[in-house]
Amino acid sequence: EEMLEIWEELSLGYTESRGHPKLIQEISGLYPGIPSSGPESPIVLAPQEGVFLAMQSLLQPGDRVVAMWPGYQSLYEVARSMGCKVDFWKPRLDEAGVPAHFDVKDLGELLLSGPAAKLVVVNFPHNPTGFLPSAAEFHEVVELCRSQGAYLFSDEMYRGLELSPNDRLPTAVEMYDRAVSLGGVSKGLSLPGLRIGWLASASRPFLDRVAELKDYTTICSAAPSEILAIIALRGRDAIFDMNRQIILGNLNALHSFFDDYPDRFAWQPPRAGTVCFPRLLGPAAEAGAAEYCERLREKHGILLLPSGTYEYDEPCFRLGYGRRNLKENLSLWRTALDAGSS
Ligand SMILES: Cc1ncc(COP(=O)(O)O)c(C=O)c1O
């Protein structure tokens, strides 16, 4: 009822630059220890805007950044475009050549092997591999950053979509005063069209700078979106559960699909999120992921994202399994495979 009243009184004027106070209150509830109002509370912005403004706030040309790769492009490309030196934390491959595991030891070696990093960028649950570290491994990542004095940008957009809710990680800002957590309603709450996300951090200078820079991007968020985001966040447990059911059903279908074509594909079942990153085998692998994906799109209307989009050389593709129509698309794909046309 409270929300109905707010919705009916909705005015389409400018909104508060840092976000609707009730929305900020709802968001701060996700981060123990983070205040629900005032200059140390989270800032509301579009998720992609959050990546951009965080990098602009934290980095200077020449700074060293260590980022997971392959990954969501802006998580390393914005820093690169600012003249930073970006080194990649790469996954270890399994015996079939599928990116399987980001080993914290490799991050540690990378951090010790060059000048001090200003920023470490992680994304758990990870797009595109579906990788999720254990809480102990995440803690080690934080300790590595602490030992180097590096900031940690933690993209937590897929948080809430763990296949097993017990696997949900603490947020980075709960663990480290130089951490920035990016969250939003686009993935776990399936509302990307609202363009609502947020940055939370215990670093007041960081938040002040983001708030200043936001005056040069969107100034404030869209009034109707803010109200809809409050409603969604208040119902988040039910929405996460609904989405988890869809994902678990789709993953069962994916397991039987990949079981049926062991000489065509290899994969690592994801632990969270809505995407995974299988690998082509056999002749399709030799022709390359770009050609395979293009043929599948053109002939059968099935959309996969080839690994070249990530500048990643292995013949992999990103497969989204978050939509309700996955099973129909898998049967189209099966027909194509069985007819020898894909
Ligand atoms: C890991 C990750 N971070 C950030 C974003 C940006 O979210 P949005 O498109 O809602 O701005 C995405 C979107 O795909 C993403 O996958």
TrEMBL record:
Domain Aminotransferase class I/classII large: 13-321
GO molecular function: catalytic activity; pyridoxal phosphate binding
Pfam families in the record: Aminotran_1_2
Coiled coil residues, start to end: none
Keywords: Pyridoxal phosphate
Gene3D superfamilies for this protein: Aspartate Aminotransferase, domain 1 (3.90.1150.10), Type I PLP-dependent aspartate aminotransferase-like (Major domain) (3.40.640.10)
CDD domains referenced in this protein's UniProt entry, alphabetically: AAT_like
Family the entry assigns: Belongs to the class-I pyridoxal-phosphate-dependent aminotransferase family.
Protein name per Swiss-Prot or TrEMBL: Aminotransferase class I/classII large domain-containing protein
Native source organism of the sequence: Rhizochromulina marina
